[in-house]
Write a structure and sequence with these properties.
Strand order of the largest sheet of chain A: 6-1-2-5-4-3-7
Largest sheet of chain A: 7 strands, antiparallel
Order of helices and strands of chain A: EEHEEEHEEEHEHEEHEHEEEHEHHH
Number of helices of chain A: 10
Number of helices of chain B: 20
Radius of gyration of chain B: 23 Å
Shape of chain B: globular
Strand content of chain B: 15-25%
Strand content of chain A: 25-35%
Distance between the termini of chain B: 40 Å
Helix content of chain B: 25-40%
Structural class of chain B: alpha/beta
Radius of gyration of chain A: 21 Å
Largest interface: A-B, 50 and 54 residues
Structural class of chain A: alpha/beta
Number of strands of chain A: 16
Oligomer: heterodimer
Helix content of chain A: 25-40%
C-alpha cells in the first residue's frame, strides 16, 4: 500500500499525485517511470515520474484520465492509497552537454519531459521548451517549464492560449529563423513524436522520443512493449523508453497500441456509468487491505520479539 | 515408528497403481478449475501399500530436494497423514506445489524400482495428498525453528528457488527477507503455471506458511533498479544475498511479422491470464485478446507451450494448435500435460516451424507460413535436430500466435552489479557445489544460473544455496 500524500488537479482531467514510495524516490533518475496498480482487480499501467523527493520518500506522477484505470485513479485524493507501485523502471534519459536542446512536449508529456529538461539545463545546455496542448485548460506546469528552460513557447491547437498551432509549427519557425539545434527530445502522443522526427531526423539532428507502448510487468519479462527499431525488436521497458527517433517504426507502435481499443472503450463506458459505485468499492477494498496489513504488522512484531521455537 | 507393511512383496505387486480422479475433458476445457481432483485417504493408503520399501530407494536419490519418500509413504500407510506431511516439509518447503507440477516420470517415479516390473509408485499423487490433507485439516506441522543467529539474508526473487531457500534458512534461525519485483509472490508459480494445474490459493497458502515460520516478504522491489545488491549489503546490512531471479526474459523466433497484433510471448499471454486474471475479464481490468471462436497457434514443446495452448482453449479458441519443430518424442513437456492437452482437443502439429507471420492491412495476424521439418543428426542436447524440408511451405490460418520457445536470463541485476561474473549468455556464474558467485557473500541458483529448468530443480538449488549460505554465515567461509 502506497499512501497518496497530495493530489491536485492541474488541468482538464489531469491530476498530479505525490505518493509515498521511499525506495523509488531514492533511486529515480529523469526519464524513468513506475508501474502502478490501483487495486486487486486492477491492471498495471506505466506512468512517468515527474519528480522525486528522496528525503520525504515521495514520488510525483501526473495522470491524464483517458481510460478506466486513469479515470478511477483521478478520483482519488490525499489520504487514499494505491495498492502497488514499482520502480524506477526503464533507462534514465541521456544527460550531456549537447549545446542547444529543443524539447517538444504534448499535453501530459510536459510532465514527463520536465525532469529531463531540468537536468539538461543543469548540464549547461541552452534549453528551448515548446509545450503543446489541445486548448487552454490542458496547458500544465507553465511555471515549471519556464524554470526548466531558457526559452519557452506555449502552443494550443485552438489558439485559446499562447500561440495557435501545433508544436511542429513552432519547430519549423525556429528552424526557418536559422536557429541551430543540437539535440531534440519529443514526448507526447505518437503522431506528434512522429511529426517532429520527420522534420528533425532528415536534418541530421539527434532526436530522442519517449515511447509509450503497452506494458504489463515493465521489467522485461513479457515483451508486450516491444517496438520495432529498423528491423530490430526492442523492449521499451528495459531498453527504453527513450529511443533514437530515426530508427523508430511509429506505424507499428500505433498499430500495437490499438490492440485492446475495443475492450478499453467498453471498460471506460462501463466505468462512467458506475463511477460512484466503482470509487466506493475501491475505497472499501483499500481499507480492507490496510486492515489486513495492520494484522500482518502485528504478527511480524510478535515474531521479531524473542523467538521461541514454534512447531506443531 | 509407523507400523510395518505386512503384505508380501508379491501381494504388493499385484495392486495396480491408483488413478487420480480428474474432471471430464469436455467440461474442464471450458473452465479454469483444477483438472486433477486429488486422492481420497483410502486410495492414498492403498497406493502406499504398493511401496516395497527398498533398501536403496532410487526415488529419494532422484528427487532433487531429496525428500525421504520411503518414510513419508510408510507414515501414509500407517494412516498418520499429518506426520507424513511434517516429514515431507523437512525437505520440501512447497509440497502441495511440487506434488502437482514436478515431472515425476523423470525424477522420483523414474527412480522407483516398481517401474521396472510394473508401474512406479504414484509418489507425486501421494505427496499432493498429504500436503492437501494437512492444509484441509488446518493443523499445520511447521518445522522447528532454531534460535536466532543474528544474521540476515536477502533473497532476490520469490519463485521456487527463493522460497525453498527461505524455508531452509529461516529454520536455521537466520532472519530472511524475500524481495519480489511483481505485486504477487511466487514467480512462475503465479504468473506462469495456470490455475487449472496449480490453483493460486494453494501457492498463497504455502507462502503464508513460510510467513508463519518468520520469513519476511517485500513485493514491488526490482533489485537492480529499486535497490542494488551492494546497497542491500552495505546500507541494509544483509550478511548474505541469494539471487534467484529466474530466466524470465522471453525468447522470440526472430522471424518477420512478429510485431503483428495477436503475436504474444507465452510469458505475456500467461501473465495476463494468470497473474492479472484476464480469464475473468468481466471482473478484472487487464485485457487479453479475445480468443473466442478464433484460431490460436502456440509454438514450442515444453510445459510453457502446453500451458499456453490449454489456456487458449479455455478462453474459447475454436482451434488451439501446438506447433513443434521436432517430434512428440522430443517434447520436454510433462507426460501428464501432453495427455491432458490431447484429451482437451488440442491439435498437435509436430515437425512444423513457422517462418513468417502474415498480417492484414491493419497489422493484425492472419496466418503463419510454416515449414515441414524432418529429424537430422543429434545436436549438443542429444536430441535429433530438425531440418526443414525443401518446398514444404504452407500457410496455417491463425488469429493469435503465442511463442513459447524458451526464456533467457534477465540482465537487470548483473548490469548494476559489475563484480558479479556472468557467462556469455548473461547467466550468473556460480560454483555448482556451493552456489557461491564471484562476489563475496552473494550466492545464486535456479534458472538464473542454469537457464530455464523445472520448479523442483530450482527448489533443489534453493536448498543447496541455503546449506552453503548457512556455512558462510556460521563459519565465515567463502
Amino acid at each position: 500500500m502506497y499512501r497518496i500524500v497530495k493530489a491536485q488537479p492541474v488541468g482538464l482531467n489531469i491530476k498530479q499525485f505525490v505518493i509515498e514510495a521511499p525506495r523509488i524516490a531514492r533511486k529515480q533518475r529523469p526519464g524513468q517511470f513506475v508501474i502502478l496498480r490501483l487495486r486487486e482487480k486492477g491492471e498495471r499501467i506505466p506512468l512517468t515520474i515527474k519528480a522525486a523527493d528522496p528525503e520525504a520518500g515521495t514520488v510525483t506522477i501526473v495522470v491524464q484520465g483517458v481510460g478506466k484505470t486513469t479515470s478511477l485513479l483521478n478520483c482519488l485524493s490525499a489520504g487514499d492509497s494505491v495498492m502497488d507501485i514499482v520502480g524506477p523502471l526503464g533507462k534514465p534519459s541521456e544527460i550531456e552537454k549537447f549545446g542547444t536542446v529543443l524539447i517538444l512536449a504534448g499535453s501530459v508529456g510536459t510532465a514527463m519531459a520536465l525532469p529531463t529538461a531540468k537536468a539538461l539545463k543543469a548540464a549547461d545546455n541552452h534549453v528551448i521548451f515548446i509545450e503543446g496542448a489541445r486548448s487552454r485548460e490542458m496547458v500544465v506546469f507553465e511555471d515549471e517549464v519556464r524554470d526548466a528552460s531558457n526559452e519557452h513557447y506555449t502552443m494550443t491547437d485552438d489558439g485559446t492560449y499562447g500561440e495557435k498551432g501545433l508544436v511542429t509549427a513552432k519547430l519549423n519557425e525556429l528552424l526557418a529563423a536559422g536557429r541551430k539545434i543540437d539535440f531534440v527530445l519529443a514526448v507526447g502522443p505518437v503522431p506528434m513524436m512522429r511529426a517532429v522526427s520527420q522534420i528533425t531526423c532528415p536534418l541530421g539532428i539527434r532526436t530522442i522520443v519517449s515511447l509509450n507502448s503497452i506494458m504489463v510487468d515493465g521489467t522485461g519479462m513479457c515483451g508486450g512493449c516491444r517496438v520495432l527499431l529498423g528491423d530490430k525488436s526492442k523492449f521499451a521497458c528495459v531498453d527504453g523508453p527513450e529511443f533514437d527517433a530515426s530508427l523508430v517504426n511509429f506505424e507499428v507502435l500505433m498499430q500495437r497500441n490499438s490492440m485492446y481499443r475495443d475492450k478499453e472503450c467498453e471498460s471506460l463506458r462501463d466505468f462512467e456509468e458506475h463511477k460512484q459505485e466503482e470509487l466506493k468499492q475501491l475505497r472499501e477494498e483499500l481499507a480492507a487491505k490496510e486492515a489486513e496489513l495492520e494484522d500482518l504488522r502485528a504478527d511480524i512484531a510478535e515474531l521479531s520479539s524473542p523467538v521461541e521455537a514454534h512447531h506443531a | 515408528m509407523p507400523e510395518k507393511n505386512t503384505l508380501s512383496l508379491k501381494e504388493r505387486m499385484t495392486i495396480s497403481r491408483v488413478q487420480m480422479p480428474e474432471l471430464e475433458a469436455g467440461e474442464r476445457s471450458r473452465n479454469f478449475e483444477e483438472v486433477n481432483c486429488g486422492l481420497e485417504p483410502a486410495d492414498a493408503m492403498l497406493e502406499a501399500t504398493r511401496c516395497i520399501e527398498c533398501a536403496k530407494p532410487g526415488c529419494v536419490e532422484q528427487c532433487p530436494v531429496g525428500v525421504n519418500v520411503k518414510q513419508v509413504v510408510a507414515l501414509i500407510y500407517a494412516g498418520d497423514h499429518l506426520g507424513a506431511a511434517a516429514k515431507l516439509r523437512e525437505d520440501n518447503a512447497l509440497p502441495a506445489i511440487t506434488g502437482r507440477v514436478c515431472p515425476q516420470e523423470n525424477q522420483c517415479e523414474g527412480g522407483c524400482v516398481l517401474g521396472r516390473k510394473a508401474t512406479p509408485l504414484a509418489i507425486g499423487h501421494l505427496e499432493r495428498f498429504v500436503a492437501d490433507y494437512e492444509r484441509e485439516s488446518g493443523r499445520l506441522g511447521l518445522p522447528q525453528i532454531a534460535p536466532p543467529t543474528g544474521k540476515s539474508v536477502a533473497i532476490v526473487g520469490s519463485g521456487p528457488a527463493g522460497l525453498s531457500a527461505a524455508g531452509d534458512l529461516v529454520q536455521k534461525g537466520h532472519r530472511v527477507h524475500v524481495f519480489e519485483a511483481l505485486h504477487e509472490l511466487g514467480g512462475v508459480l503465479v504468473y506462469g503455471i495456470p490455475e487449472f494445474r496449480l490453483p493460486k490459493t494453494i501457492v498463497r497458502e504455502e507462502i503464508e506458511n513460510l510467513r508463519r515460520m518468520g520469513v519476511g516478504f517485500e513485493t514491488n522491489v526490482v533489485v537492480g533498479k529499486s535497490v542494488t545488491i551492494d546497497e542491500l549489503m552495505k546500507d541494509e546490512k544483509y550478511d548474505a544475498v541469494f539471487v534467484a531471479t529466474g530466466a524470465g526474459l522471453p525468447r522470440f523466433l526472430g522471424i518477420p511479422g512478429e510485431h503483428l497484433n495477436g503475436v504474444y510471448s507465452a510469458n505475456e499471454f500467461l501473465t495476463r491470464v494468470n497473474l492479472m486474471r484476464a480469464y475473468r475479464s468481466l471482473e478484472y481490468d487487464e485485457p487479453v485478446y479475445d480468443c473466442h471462436g478464433r484460431d490460436v497457434m502456440v509454438v514450442g514443446g515444453g510445459n510453457t507451450a502446453m500451458d499456453a495452448v490449454r489456456t487458449a482453449r479455455r478462453l474459447g479458441a475454436r482451434t488451439a494448435t501446438l506447433v513443434y519443430r521436432r517430434s512428440e518424442k522430443e517434447m520436454p513437456a510433462r507426460a501428464e500435460e501432453v495427455k491432458h492437452a490431447r484429451e482437451e482437443g488440442i491439435e498437435f502439429r509436430m515437425l512444423t516451424d513457422p517462418v513468417v507471420f502474415v498480417g492484414d492491412e491493419r497489422g493484425w495476424l492472419e496466418g503463419a507460413r510454416c515449414m515441414q521439418m524432418e529429424l537430422g543428426a543429434p545436436d549438443a542436447s542429444g536430441r535429433r535436430s530438425p531440418v526443414p524440408i525443401k518446398g514444404s511451405e504452407f500457410i496455417l490460418p491463425v488469429d493469435v500466435a503465442i511463442i513459447g520457445v524458451g526464456t533467457t536470463a534477465n540482465p537487470l541485476i548483473q548490469s548494476t552489479t559489475p563484480d558479479l561474473a556472468t557467462n556469455s549468455r548473461n547467466y550468473i556464474v556460480a560454483d555448482p557445489q556451493t552456489l557461491r558467485t564471484s562476489k563475496r557473500g552473494v550466492f545464486a541458483g535456479g534458472d538464473i544460473v542454469t537457464g530455464a529448468a523445472t520448479v523442483i530443480l530450482a527448489m533443489g538449488a534453493g536448498r543447496k544455496a541455503a546449506a552453503s549460505i548457512h556455512d558462510f554465515l556460521t563459519e565465515n567461509r567463502f
